[in-house]
Design a protein that fits this description.
312 residues, 36% helix, 10 helices, 8 strands, globular, 15% strand, alpha+beta
């Protein structure tokens, strides 16, 4: 057990019966201690799940400093402090939460891809969706095809959105030029200056070490880019909320039967969940995150974050 300093919070959860439930949750304060706590707590949880579940007995597979250095050289990237610590202590797990896709899912995919494709389209699909299931968190050592595809994903997706029917274009780029070559040039110039986003899982990325201010975890699907969490620490709390004991059942008029949500009343979590996009600095990417503005919606991003209107 890591002996670093811990912070202890006590939360009181009120149910419709007006009976309070006190839940004491302890968070390690430093990032390494926090990651070791994640490791120990999740592995203990996975040991107790039923034997027939694919995640039963899962363990984390950390990397060495040498392996991380070699990855930075191989892909010409720089892991941020948070990301590097994550890779060194956690990285990925040796099992998956999900069994192989069922026949219905496979049939749906086959129908989607059964239309006629050009050879170029087939090659592109094969590149971005390698023919094997990736780990729950990407394995940077064995899943080279997925790492390469996700490093190229943002550039390709944004270019397609700029040149395609969406005609996406940021205001900071100035007037939209007529030629496709000039559009791509302007985007590439911006993209190469922006803090690089490095893949964690699926199409979820963490900002690398170049950025100032917050380094959020972002879900990137072209210009439909949202905040998944305000930091890697926040992301892991949300991703493993059940394993870490960070959920509670709440009741209100809209959900008299009850609903499960992240526990409220823990200062660190409450503060993270309440951060407003208007109040934070996210170099370059903030303009993308606010690209789609929906004034009729009270919340977005999945954790009580109010919509922010793009600057005019």
């Amino acid at each position: 057990m890591n002996t670093d300093k811990y912070i202890t919070y006590t939360s009181t959860i009120y149910y419709t019966t007006e009976t309070p439930m006190n839940t004491q949750i302890t968070f390690p304060e430093s990032l390494p201690a926090f990651l070791y706590w994640i490791k120990e707590t999740t592995e203990a949880y996975w040991r107790e799940v039923p034997d027939n579940e694919s995640i039963h007995g899962a363990k984390w597979m950390p990397l060495t400093d040498q392996q991380i250095d070699e990855l930075e050289l191989k892909y010409a990237i720089k892991f941020g402090v948070e990301h590097r610590a994550f890779l060194k202590i956690l990285h990925t797990i040796d099992k998956n939460y999900y069994d192989e896709m069922n026949e219905e899912d496979q049939s749906s995919d086959e129908q989607e891809w059964s239309r006629e494709e050009s050879e170029e389209e087939k090659m592109k699909r094969a590149f971005f969706f390698p023919p094997y299931r990736p780990s729950f968190f990407y394995n940077w050592i064995t899943e080279t095809e997925w790492i390469e595809s996700r490093l190229a994903w943002i550039d390709d997706f944004y270019t397609s959105s700029i040149l395609g029917v969406n005609r996406s274009w940021l205001k900071s780029w100035g007037p939209r030029p007529d030629s496709d070559e000039e559009k791509v040039r302007i985007f590439k110039e911006w993209y190469h200056k922006a803090p690089r986003l490095l893949p964690i899982t699926d199409h979820t990325y963490l900002m690398d070490d170049v950025g100032d201010g917050l380094r959020p975890v972002m879900s990137v699907y072209g210009f439909d880019t949202i905040i998944s969490a305000w930091s890697l620490r926040h992301f892991l709390m949300r991703e493993f909320d059940e394993e870490l004991g960070l959920t509670a059942t709440y009741y209100d008029e809209d959900y008299p039967e009850g609903y499960i949500d992240m526990v409220k009343g823990i200062p660190e979590l409450d503060a993270l969940q309440a951060i407003k996009l208007d109040d934070v600095d996210i170099p370059y990417w903030k303009e993308v995150i606010t690209y789609y503005y929906h004034p009729d919606q009270k919340c977005w991003q999945g954790f009580w974050v109010p919509w922010s209107k793009p600057s005019s």
